[in-house]
Known about the structure:
Bound molecules: pyridoxal-5'-phosphate
Shape: globular
Order of helices and strands: EEHHEHEHEHEHHEHEHEHEHEEHEHHEH
CATH class of the largest domain: Alpha Beta
CATH architecture of the largest domain: 3-Layer(aba) Sandwich
Strand content: 15-25%
Largest sheet: 6 strands, mixed
CATH topology of the largest domain: Rossmann fold
Distance between the termini: 48 Å
Amino acid sequence: MKKGYYGExxxxxxxxxxxxxxxxxxxxxxxLKKDKxxxxxxxxxxxxxxxxxxxxxxxxxxxxxxxxxxxYLKREDLNHTGAHKINHCIGxxxxxxxxxxxxxxAETGAGQHGLAIATVCALMDLQCEIHMGYVDVxxxxxxxxxxxxxxxxxxxxxxGGTLKDAVDSALSAYxxxxxxxIYCIGSVVGPHPYPSMVxxxxxxxxxxxxxxxxxxxxxxxxxxxxxxxxxxxxxxxxSAYLKDTVVNLIGVEAMGKGKNIGDNSATIQFGETDVYQxxxxxxxxxxxxxxxxxxxxxxxxxxxxVGPEHAHLSDVKRAQYVSIDDKxxxxxxxxxxxxxxxxxxxxxxxxxxxxxxxxxxxxxxxxVLVNLSGRGDKDVDFVLQQNH
Length: 388
Ligand SMILES: Cc1ncc(COP(=O)(O)O)c(C=O)c1O
């Protein structure tokens, strides 16, 4: 496969000046990933700062109540800062230090990537600038307050006020600040080498879950289910099973309020191939062929594009992409909370909802492994305001 590409997707479509920076990042990352000291430093932080390995939890009550297959959760919600995002933030921050940068610029939707970046910046004495759509700033106030406490500067962004606008704003700030800053993207998106670098840092999720399920069940899961915004938690868990073709991989996109463009974030289902934000992928388009506003009840899923590897895995049919709407996600949020005592993030609730639907149709000896990408503390106020 061509460097930086997954099938026809990926690559790098940026200015010459930015390409020079990305080449530097790629060279340093390729050196570090083979470096014994770097690997030890990362492993130590994963264990003692992040709290890895995260548990694999058998939802005995929920499985029984639901009927059908056994439901397991990979508990990424138990990471420090409450989501899988810190898995790649810790790696990106270490890389920033090795490149001699003094500042990290990042975007955030649900605030989980921003919070994780602000946290590692505090740990590593880096300045931190987080770009966030104004709608998300209001909706995810708990995370905004934490980021501020950690010393981050928050840039509230206009336009549609969501993740797409935050990425545009962060990228443009980065272009003016190459000397001091590095851009730390929040998912497996953006120009090469970000999709492969973020995937590598997230692959710890899949590797751990594979060891854990073999120990607990003596076999691999029959299905692995994860929500897909940009696609980092999904690639993180899928990556360990790509060659195990007996394992069915299922990415869950947000169907939001319905099938009309503007009402959902189901990029793989409704998107067209195009270059967007520096890489080639599937993109949601409106009737005028402009990039559409994406929508989901979960701020971390409302992105109008998707990681290039997901677009490719869909094309070659190694993974299947389905969707869950707002109401189904809210139902799953309440169900997991009430039955198992685990409050999931609204993003992760999409994966839980599909996992439940699927498990019901399967025999009891089958295993559905759901990646619980984050915890729902950030969503509690918002959920309580909804009519449910
Ligand atoms: C808890 C949680 N899960 C999932 C996502 C979606 O991102 P990705 O598709 O990159 O995993 C987000 C994004 O903010 C998130 O906060």
